[in-house]
């Protein structure tokens, strides 16, 4: 019944991938990470956030020579699988190109995985400690909507925002992962044209990087319930990231 649609869809996919390839040099010249090497701290809330949401960013930055470190602010122990998820986190990070010694995962009583409010002061203190330790000169994390709306994701945004208001950190740029509406979130490559036209910072994965993001997701075996498989297959965040620079007036 729907076979007549197959041809046009395949043509559209081919065109979009062609656009993807042709955009590579353009994207490299319009994002702030395309010049001098930087030490970048990517801050997430749970093991699997690094590949579920930030895979394209992490792989792009490591590919062009930046030093990327990961800071995960909880062990994801909501269902009592924290120890297992720690191992999965390090395996996933390694697949994405971030070595073990550039990763940190925190188990703090005030920052536990779940729907409850996080202690923003505790989160800010931990983040500041790692900024000093790494000498990081850029931060990447969630925006105020947290992509999925998870309160832990949003808490990181507010903790980082609080840090960014301090005079000693105003020179460190903060970039936040843009939350899209549900439709755009699950149309995969079909969101490329719109994202390119509306975003100042866009990271598009190569085919190899896209497969690596999927492989990294599969390393989080304890989390692979049915809807995660759907996410892996359809989410734009497995293929592309759009970022905004945090500006506080």
Would you write up a description of this structure?
Keywords: Signal. This is N-acetylglucosaminylphosphatidylinositol deacetylase. With 249 residues, the protein is an alpha/beta fold. It has a single domain, classed as LmbE-like (Rossmann fold). The chain contains eleven helices and seven strands. Strand 2, helix 4 and strand 3 (103-105) form a beta-alpha-beta unit. It has a seven-stranded mixed β-sheet, sandwiched between helices.
What order do the helices and strands come in, and which of them pair?
Elements: H1 3-30, E1 39-44, H2 49-52, H3 55-63, E2 67-72, H4 82-96, E3 103-105, H5 120-134, E4 138-142, H6 146-149, H7 151-164, E5 174-177, H8 182-185, H9 192-198, E6 201-204, H10 207-218, H11 226-234, E7 240-245
Parallel strand pairs: 1-2, 1-4, 2-3, 4-5
Antiparallel strand pairs: 5-7, 6-7
Largest sheet: 7 strands, mixed
Q: Determine and state the CATH class.
A: Alpha Beta
Distance between the termini: 55 Å
Spatial strand sequence of the major β-sheet: 3-2-1-4-5-7-6
Which second-level CATH architecture applies?
A: 3-Layer(aba) Sandwich
What percentage of the residues does DSSP assign to strands (E)? 5-15%
Given the helix and strand composition, which structural class is it?
Answer: alpha/beta
Question: What is the count of DSSP helices, taking H or I runs of 4+ residues?
Answer: 11
Q: What's the overall average pLDDT, rounded?
A: 90
Helix and strand run: HEHHEHEHEHHEHHEHHE
E-strand count: 7
CATH superfamily: LmbE-like
The domain count comes to 1
């Amino acid at each position: 019944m729907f076979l007549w649609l197959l041809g046009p869809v395949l043509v559209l996919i081919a065109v979009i991938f062609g656009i993807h390839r042709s955009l590579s040099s353009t994207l490299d010249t319009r994002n702030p990470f395309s010049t001098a090497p930087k030490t970048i701290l990517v801050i997430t809330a749970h093991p699997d956030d690094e590949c579920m949401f930030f895979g394209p960013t992490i792989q792009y930055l490591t590919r062009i020579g930046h030093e990327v470190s990961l800071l995960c602010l909880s062990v994801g122990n909501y269902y009592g699988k924290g120890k297992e998820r720690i191992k999965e986190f390090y395996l996933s990070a390694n697949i994405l190109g971030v070595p073990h010694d550039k990763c940190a995962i925190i188990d703090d009583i005030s920052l536990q995985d779940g729907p409850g409010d996080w202690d923003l002061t505790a989160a800010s203190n931990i983040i500041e400690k790692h900024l000093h330790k790494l000498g990081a000169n850029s931060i990447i994390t969630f925006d105020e909507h947290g992509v999925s709306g998870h309160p832990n994701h949003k808490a990181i945004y507010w903790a980082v925002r609080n840090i960014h208001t301090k005079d000693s950190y105003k020179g460190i740029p903060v970039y936040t992962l843009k939350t899209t509406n549900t439709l755009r979130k699950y149309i995969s490559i079909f969101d490329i044209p719109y994202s390119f036209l509306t975003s100042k910072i866009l990271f598009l994965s190569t085919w190899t990087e896209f497969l690596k993001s999927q492989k990294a997701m599969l390393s989080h075996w304890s989390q692979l319930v049915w809807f995660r498989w759907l996410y892996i297959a359809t989410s734009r965040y497995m293929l592309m990231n759009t970022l905004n620079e945090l500006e506080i007036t």
